[in-house]
Amino acid sequence: MNIILFGPPGAGKGTQAKKLQDEYNIPHLSTGDIFRAAIKNKTPLGVKVKSILDSGELVPDETVVDLVADELKKEKYKDGYILDGFPRTVVQAKAFDEFLNENDDELDAFISLTVPEEELIKRILSRGEDRSDDTEEKIKTRLEVYREETQPVMNYYEKQGKVQKIDGLGSIDEIFNGIKEVLN
Length: 184
Ligand code: AMP
Hints:
The protein is α/β, with parallel strands linked by helices. It has helices spanning 13-24, 31-40, 44-55, 61-72, 90-102, 117-126, 136-159, 172-183, and strands at residues 2-6, 28-30, 81-84, 109-114, 163-167. It is built from eight helices and five strands. The model has no long low-confidence stretch (mean pLDDT 96). It binds adenosine monophosphate. The site of adenosine monophosphate has 16 residues, from helix 2 and helix 3.
């Protein structure tokens, strides 16, 4: 099962992706986690993207698409995956469609977590993840980037009839149950 977990920063994608990973035994792939690990380990990729993540802007499409395509070729993803934080632009979504086509594969679900913006800011500021991009100013930039570059990704999948919207307000388990209902 190939799933995209979609939503603005602070919507709870990471939390829900981990729960899905445990429930269905499908690996979770977070592009943000890969970038943060690369920065921490000072790899060439990390050095390249550090200032971009610090600013709250997006890493160039080509870099992200190559990274995801390489990652998804690994054995552990052969029976499916949960994407969190990718695709984040229409260019990435199109490239991902091509990747699926080339591999004779398809997307099973596009789950969009909806949360009002005021709630997102509150959540991110209180989650205490010690991220350099979790300051109020950077969160505003990330939300702007989301509105301008990432939201259109949902329209792209809506045209394919794939979007399932889930209310992202409520307890972690309530939201998780909503996602499970959609998947079953
Ligand atoms: P996240 O952990 O998903 O909030 O991602 C943290 C940061 O990593 C984002 O603000 C971007 O700078 C970068 N990033 C993660 N995924 C992508 C992506 N698909 N495209 C571009 N930049 C990304």
